[in-house]
Structure of MarR family transcriptional regulator:
Amino acid sequence: MDRKPDEATEAAWIGLSRAQRVATATIEARLKAAGLPPLSWYDALWELERAGEAGLRPFELERALLFEQYNLSRLADRLEKAGLVERRAVEADRRGQMLIITPAGRDLRRRMWAIYAPAIQEAVGDRLAAGEAATLAALLGKLA
Amino acid sequence: MDRKPDEATEAAWIGLSRAQRVATATIEARLKAAGLPPLSWYDALWELERAGEAGLRPFELERALLFEQYNLSRLADRLEKAGLVERRAVEADRRGQMLIITPAGRDLRRRMWAIYAPAIQEAVGDRLAAGEAATLAALLGKLA
DNA sequence: CGAAGGTTGATGCAGTTGCATGAAAATAGA
DNA sequence: TCTATTTTCATGCAACTGCATCAACCTTCG
């Protein structure tokens, strides 16, 4: 078995690291400049908004976002403290809880999207020709 | 001007985030399991090894690695404390210093590569068909 | 049932990162 | 020259992450 990456594989890995860093830095900078919280807050709020009234269990959100358990637990703390998320007990499992987005959470997510969307366009869309984004997305999908 | 990403652009951005996270997690886990330091140490050691006897100025390494200045300053502290890198004064600019890899640094880098290389193959190479890696690398290159 | 094992979530502590700032030296410009 | 600006690097402090571990509950299986 060939356990050394060939040149193209290595280039893809390095490109993946660098592209993600550059794009993330751009996007996070736009959010910060607008006085908004980081991307991780957006991701969590978006998942919770999509989940609707029912909300999500922390472990579900953890898997959806690929977060470590302790990081999600603490992110939930911060979101709750900021009034963006409500923690609600769940009858079926007394260890558990439901995380439910609040109206303030939905509002913040919307305001973040107003900055986030053009930042994605700037960091990704503007740099790819027509059709390339779809090709890139398909290839990246094979890695995750 | 269209400042909202289209569907493919958004998919590419999300794919970029997730693919990088999954691949990095795999690779870092392999290094940790082997009792080796994180990727950032490898990257720094590799740049310094390529720079040879002359070494690199911290600000050069900072730009090569896309590190924040304070993070590089502290990474250099740790590498020096671990005996992997030597800090040497530079006559031409008395603010500055040269970072020079030590034999122990070269040795560690080599041992890390023995784990890192197959991990890249596992996380990236094995998941792409022939030719796809080169396509992916080219597209990612446009983002950075 | 009842013990063993797995799942869910929180948390103390150490290490790392982000932010703001500072000190020292180099450079530019009047 | 000599003052203002920029560059290079470090660091105190707060926030965040990683690690280990714990407590509570659920599930499985003899």
Q: What stands out?
A: The helical segments of chain B are 7-33, 39-51, 58-65, 69-81, 103-123, 132-141. The mean pLDDT of chain B is 96.
